[in-house]
Write a structure and sequence with these properties.
By secondary structure, the protein is mainly alpha-helical. It has 17 helices and no strands. It has three domains: about 15-205, Growth Hormone, Chain: A, CATH 1.20.1250; about 210-260; about 270-510, Up-down Bundle (Growth Hormone, Chain: A), CATH 1.20.1250.
Length: about 500
């Protein structure tokens, strides 16, 4: 060796995180559980809400969608605020606001006020999610520990989806629908107490600037498009629908152009130039659309057509949600050997089969349960692989932005699942509903709006006429399920095609 050669010692290995960090991980799992439970439990409460508040069909869709719509629109913005002002501070602010607004939602006297409360929950929920993942990276500096911590944190979403029907069904069995909102309070109290003790404060020393114009443009993009989908489902093709879609597309173009020109954009659009990144994101979005849309109409079928109680309906869907969790975990070793462009389409074959079974299963309860298991297997595998590809294909310095984009896709998928498949089945239900003669005008009006309205009106009318109305409404709803399920199968096929074309041939990284 040359005497003049200077050798530099290798950098020290990152310190291992002790019990305090793992306890902090348990605290950070609480918001993930809460958000996931909230995305599934409301579908089970919707029939009771519809009977109590008597929303229109459009208001019923907005009750579901106001929360994920606002959440998705503000995720990237709140992530930027957390970088600037402190991620733990943003987490605590979000938890406090979420708890307070949950109480307001539980006692909302009208559909309009419930929609407003759901939008408020979206604002504070957007403060929770980006902060949790950012804090995990701060706590776990060792790569192997961090990888395990992120995997455990991610399973909280699937666990929450499984717990949602059980917890929600149990609450609805014994309490009013407002209880599904109040359950967030005991979940968030431990977070507010333990987070200041167990979680360190962290912020970006060089945060990007807050661009108000970008925030406004992102909201102006999403709201008109989703609202246009809802109007299309309820009123058909109208001039308003065209204006809404054109406005949304115009603002989307302006948003993208601004992000490309800013030196520190709110959302780095260059990430989408990578085919694998964009393809994995689309697969993830379409998978969530398929899952949430399925839950939207199956939850109503099980309660209002089959006649199960909310708790029974919740337990009926648990096997499918458990299958989703198991599939998401077991696909990890398979992904090391099978290329994603082969693995993801193969997995989604299960989901296509589940939707086809629903379409031709004539509403049989056993068919519904088996179909959801098949759907869960495919989506569980596809989401695990696609989420990993979103993170691994992004440059290391863009990992935070990639995480925010992935979470945004999840919430946008939840919005579109209800807006597209929920809107389609609403339109088909109204088109196929044949009301029996002799109904009072008020009962006929309620029956045309929603299935829940029809069942409630049938109970009020009573006798043979009421039974005829309930039968007609159930038949119209199940007839709509056939076409909606086939459309859902088509969306899953599209996800498979995108995966085969864009995810490349390289195996997932271990």
């Amino acid at each position: 060796m040359n005497a003049n050669t200077t050798t530099h010692p290798a950098p020290p290995a990152p310190a291992k995180t002790g019990w305090r960090g793992w306890a902090g991980l348990a605290v950070l799992m609480l918001p993930a559980l809460l958000v996931s439970v909230d995305n599934t439990v409301l579908s089970f409460a919707l029939p009771q809400i519809a009977l109590d508040l008597e929303p229109t069909s459009a208001e019923q869709l907005w009750i579901i969608d106001a929360y994920p719509l606002v959440l998705a629109a503000l995720l990237v913005t709140m992530g930027t605020l957390g970088d600037r002002y402190g991620r733990r501070r943003m987490l605590l602010l979000g938890a406090t606001g979420f708890a307070v607004v949950s109480v307001l939602a539980a006692f909302a006297p009208t559909a309009g006020l419930l929609i407003a409360a759901r939008a408020g929950l979206g604002v504070f929920g957007a403060m929770l999610m980006p902060s949790t993942l950012s804090l995990l990276r701060t706590i776990f500096t060792d790569r192997d520990q961090r990888r395990l911590a992120v995997a455990v944190w991610a399973t909280a979403f699937s666990a929450g989806a499984a717990l949602g029907p059980i917890v929600g069904g149990s609450l609805l069995e014994h309490f009013a629908w407002g209880s599904v909102f109040l359950m967030s309070v005991p979940v968030l109290i431990p977070l507010l107490v333990l987070a200041p003790i167990l979680l360190p404060e962290s912020r970006d020393p060089n945060p990007g600037r807050i661009d108000v114009v970008s925030i406004v443009l992102s909201l102006a993009t999403m709201v008109p498009i989703v609202y246009g989908i809802k109007e299309l489902a309820v009123a058909g093709i109208t001039p308003l629908v065209g204006v809404l879609f054109v406005a949304g597309i115009l603002f989307a173009v302006l948003f993208v152009r601004r992000q490309l020109r800013l030196p520190t954009p709110m959302l780095d659009m260059r990430l989408f130039r990578q085919g694998t990144f964009a393809g994995a994101l689309l697969v993830n979005l379409l998978s969530v659309v398929a899952l949430v849309g399925f839950l939207y109409f199956v939850a109503q079928h099980l309660q209002l057509v089959v006649g199960l109680s909310p708790m029974q309906a919740g337990w009926a869907l648990v096997p499918g949600l458990v299958a989703m969790i198991v599939a998401g975990l077991t696909v990890v070793p398979i992904a090391k050997r099978v290329p994603p462009r082969v693995l993801v389409p193969a997995a989604l074959v299960f989901s296509v089969g589940g939707y086809v079974a629903i379409a031709f299963g004539a509403g049989d309860l056993a068919v519904v349960l088996l179909a959801f298991i098949a759907l869960g297997i495919g989506i569980g595998m596809a989401e695990t692989v696609s989420n990993e590809l979103v993170l691994t294909t992004a440059p290391p310095e863009k990992a935070g932005a990639a995480s925010a984009v992935s979470e945004t896709a999840y919430e946008l998928g939840a919005v579109l699942g209800t807006a597209i498949l929920g809107g389609i089945i609403t339109a088909l239900y109204r088109a196929k509903l044949v009301l029996p003669e002799g109904l009072p005008p008020a009962a006929a009006e309620a029956a045309r709006e929603t299935l829940a309205g029809a069942i409630h009106a049938a109970e009020g009318v009573g006798g043979e006429l009421g039974a005829a109305l309930a039968a007609a409404a159930s038949h119209a709803f199940d007839a709509g399920i056939v076409i909606t399920a086939l459309i859902g199968a088509g969306l899953v096929v599209l996800a498979g095609v995108i995966a085969a074309a864009s995810l490349g041939g390289s195996r997932s990284k271990p």
